[in-house]
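Re-running the complex after MR caught last week's input typo. The corrected sequence lines follow. Everything else is unchanged.
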Amino acid sequence: MSDAWRCSRATWLPLVFLLAGGREFPLQAQDHLQSIRASGVLRWGADAEGGAPYVYPDPQQPERLIGFECDLADALAAKLGVKAKMVQNEWDQLIPALERGNFDIILNGLEITPENQQHISMSLPYYVYAQQIVTRKGTEHLVSLTELKGRRVGVLSGSVAQRLIEGEGGADLRIYPGNVEALRDLKAERLDAALLDLPIAIHYARPDPALKFSGTAFAPGYYGIGARKQDITLLAALNQAIGELSQEQVLERIYRKYGLWDERQAALEDYRPAAVAAQKPISTLHEWPRYLPLLLRGAVVTVELSVLGMALAVVAGLVVVLVRLYAGAPLSGLAQAYVEVMRGTPLLIQLFLIYYGLPEIGIRLNPFFAGILGLGLNYAASEAENYRAGIQSIPRGQTEAALALGMGRWQTLRHVVLPQALRVVIPPVTNDFIAMFKDSSIVSVITMVELTKVYGMLAMSTYDYIGLGLMTAGIYFALSYPASIFAGRLEKKLSYDHR
Amino acid sequence: MITVEGFGQSANLGKVEPRPMITVEGLAKSYNSTPVLRGIDHQQRQGEAVVLIGPSGCGKSTFLRCLNRLEEPDAGRITIGRVCVEAGQREGDGEQHRRQQELRLQAGMVFQSFNLFPHLTALQNISLGPTVVKGLPRPQAEELGRQLLAKVGLETKADFHPGQLSGGQQQRVAIARALAMEPQVMLFDEPTSALDPELRDEVLRVMRQLAEEGLTMIVVTHEMQFARDMADRVLFFDSGRVAESGPPDEIFSNPQNERTREFLKKVTTR
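Corrected-run output:
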């Protein structure tokens, strides 16, 4: 289990891969063990973003990666007679990336589960993990899954913890792109508890004076190495290496170094691979009555976010442009600075600042309002620029004619300039509205489950990227196309050049 | 009640020492240290129609635009009716701003390129000023607008947008729009220059009618025949100065100034 910032961007990448040739594209027929030995490098896929204690940048020396899986990868590679090389990849996209051939193995807290074994082979286990509930100091005991019912519980997207809570039901589940964010929100009192893999809890939560372990860890499971199904000799070599490392107590030494050794690891010996029944591949298109409603529920959130976000942007943008064009020197400079800063910095960072940064100064917004605020304030800059272009496209003679009639500045704007500019700005503003429909997917990084997030979650569990992708794209189109038709009608209606 | 024929009583009322309607003293204006107006003095009695002629770039349009403060003069004093504004004070000054608005209400402006509001109908173009600036109730403003449209011969075009009207019709609407504010003075800035020759007459006819009704007006134009027929006085502008002025007969038949002679020769042989 890795702790990573997983952006929704990651969820459309596989679709691009598919369109560019599909999963079959780079697969060589023969076993990779030979080519690994020939090249002398074992490439292991993992996510180092917030990935402690698995693999993460050394705080003292950030260009160097450390972590128990780093040490393990080196030890394994040594057994194979090669060097280990880490390949960075979004955690929830490790399996598709392995199948594409981006690296040779996955070594990153991947659980040995029937779901994971549908598409790849898993090695013998190298670590026994368990789930730990973490709460704030001073909160009542929430020591089991049943006691989490009715509570706000944070989990990592796509994790075993998420599946456990969903299976138990009844909790107010909040899904995070990374465990660090979940713990942050726990401290900010936006959550009652977080459920996470024990190694992460040990690394991040145990040293934190504001947090505490609630009850003992439960629901143990195994981490294993993932390999492509056809790499049979590679898998055998890895299994042999793991066995040797365990017997030579190299594993114990590594885990002790990171404070991760516990009595559960004795269970490594008891592991017996279970026969995994091959599941029938799911075609979500054929079973659309099951999947479409889930996607539509996400679409409702997308519509709410973008309609409210755009409403804010349209109004705030007008204020910004009026201040910029007509207010005095210090204010208009401020408005211009606002536009430049909002345009010149990523929406993602702005969202993080609003959602995770503002609580530090006492402003705690829920994800929905933080999302609307982030989208609205970001797009306000763009709308202000649209308006400015529209206002400045109105000939000077119009203003002069109004002034000559004795109108004041505001009257001139209100009755002469803005009504004409309105028609000019409808196309670019519509364009932005449609863009926001799609951009709104970015708020999944602050735990909003909207259309793209639902797609990503379903695709991860069904592996039907095409079917779900087509349905999701269809919904986006069905939402945005009427918007552009409506804008076209409005533009025609406001047109006064009937010649 | 609103009357349309209220602009300055007819000319013959002012036979006894008419007080000047317009007084300009020492008006000067430069663009980037290039002088455009070099100290202009001008007096005009009520009901007088004055035509400005002169080569392009001589400053006649700038003079007109300074009169209603579309341009800020560098120096000088402008009095129209009872409102006097002096150059130099910035627009940010509240009192100055108020007087500038008042000055604009004294003077109606007609532009070379009409500058009608394209999003409004002919009638709305005319009634907008009275409703917004004077707070006239809409029904009354529209009644006034219809009377003015009838005056310029366009009563049937009330609900047309400017884009649906010919250039001559647009300019007549623009004149009606300026008249709706019931100004003391009308300023015409080359009102027929953007029009095809066959459309000029309808505009000139309206202007002639206004002059006959005794409206005080200043017209910048290249229509020499119009100047000859209609003007009480012609001012010849050259290099930011009034080079020569007098009744049209004198100026056109017997110009004293060498530059005037050259200019008239050019425009009449064209």
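None of the earlier attempt is carried over here. The longest helix of chain A spans residues 288-326. The radius of gyration of chain A is 27 Å.
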